[in-house]
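Per your request, structure below.
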């Protein structure tokens, strides 16, 4: 009986240890993608931008393959692909944003609240920035729906408030946009993402200047 108990406890310990290692590895992989995205998005000069996003997209795809049952790699793959589309522009961007939407919808099926509602922040931003039919799938009603979902999950987040504010600005609702831009500007700092926070705050300040001017 003692031997059976010892065997059971050993198996349980190994299971818990493996789960811990898996979680740490996933966290590390996501943090790496977040950091490299911030560098590419905010600090990489134009001549090197295409190559930076090409390399980062490949890394994101590999992370999705490594963790096929997790929403977080799919979300970051989508963010990277859509950011690449925004930087590159042109007809190729439409294919990329469609791929990004597909990845986000896959992630939603796994865990809709992953990364503090980033699925809905990203979907919302796509729907108001992408052209509408017949070129793209842009839809302001869908954008508003998703952005409000993101705010419901993460009401004080820098990204959820920034993108809702930017949507309102696009809709001509400047006064209301200012409220959410300021809320984004005063959002709690993310200790693990200082470069992303700095870059986003720079974008917020630039948007506020355009409204005041």
């Amino acid at each position: 009986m003692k031997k059976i108990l010892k065997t059971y406890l050993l198996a349980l310990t190994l299971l818990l240890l493996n789960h811990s290692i898996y979680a740490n590895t996933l966290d590390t992989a996501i943090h790496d993608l977040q950091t490299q995205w911030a560098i590419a998005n905010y600090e990489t000069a134009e001549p090197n931008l295409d190559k930076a996003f090409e390399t980062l997209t490949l890394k994101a795809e590999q992370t999705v393959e490594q963790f096929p049952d997790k929403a977080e790699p799919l979300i970051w793959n989508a963010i990277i692909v859509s950011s690449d589309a925004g930087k590159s522009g042109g007809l190729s961007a439409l294919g990329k944003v469609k791929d990004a939407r597909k990845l986000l919808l896959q992630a939603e099926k796994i865990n809709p609240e992953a990364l503090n509602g980033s699925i809905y922040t990203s979907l919302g931003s796509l729907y108001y920035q992408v052209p509408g039919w017949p070129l793209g799938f842009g839809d302001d009603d869908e954008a508003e729906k998703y952005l409000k979902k993101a705010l419901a999950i993460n009401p004080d987040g820098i990204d959820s408030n920034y993108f809702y504010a930017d949507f309102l600005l696009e809709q001509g609702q400047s006064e209301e946009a200012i409220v959410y831009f300021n809320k984004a500007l005063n959002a709690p700092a993310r200790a693990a993402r200082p470069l992303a926070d700095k870059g986003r705050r720079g974008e917020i300040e630039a948007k506020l200047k355009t409204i005041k001017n």
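The radius of gyration is 20 Å.

Regards,
D.
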